[in-house]
Amino acid sequence: AQTVTQSQPEMSVQEAETVTLSCTYDTSESNYYLFWYKQPPSRQMILVIRQEAYKQQNATENRFSVNFQKAAKSFSLKISDSQLGDTAMYFCAFGRAGNQFYFGTGTSLTVIP
Amino acid sequence: NAGVTQTPKFRVLKTGQSMTLLCAQDMNHEYMYWYRQDPGMGLRLIHYSVGEGTTAKGEVPDGYNVSRLKKQNFLLGLESAAPSQTSVYFCASSHLMTGGLTEAFFGQGTRLTVV
User: Fold this and answer.
1) Of B52, B56, B73, B74, which has the fewest Cβ atoms less than 10 A away?
2) What is the pLDDT of residues A70-85, one digit of tens each?
């Protein structure tokens, strides 16, 4: 079974600073996908970024980037120039063949003005 | 473009009552899922479906039943609600892609309280 671990239940960052959220996973598969989802107070689950395991290049989406270390099974999310609207719960997720998804327990991020 | 729609958004039940949560998606996705979200536990899979007329158990299926009579709809039923089923419920869907995987698209969630 796949497991996804987010070891930081809560984090905070000053507005305009950079913060990194950690995620590790355990799998024996070679082909899989990794995702970061954002859940603001509105409760909506919003996809932030995705990474295909076969791609060595780290994915980026504007201020959001990942550090994907396949051998270490690590998938961290870096948020640059943090904004108040980034305050949310962030979930790391693992996706495998058969469209199965596994989620971490989440990191609650607070951006401090 | 509605995406994934859940009804209702909020519900309060008394212990022992029954109810059905409805999920509808307009993206023609093959896969649909029901998750529950509890503090400190992330999202846990209750049941899922890989196509019309099929369902399968997830990680925490006890106390729930599901049906997928139409491709666009996935129903989650609670036959006899218990306080332990107080949670936020999410429906999601995803597309079967040759050689790949799309992300899961989520509904807006249903907050269920069982008193």
Assistant:
1) B56
2) 999 999 999 999 999 9
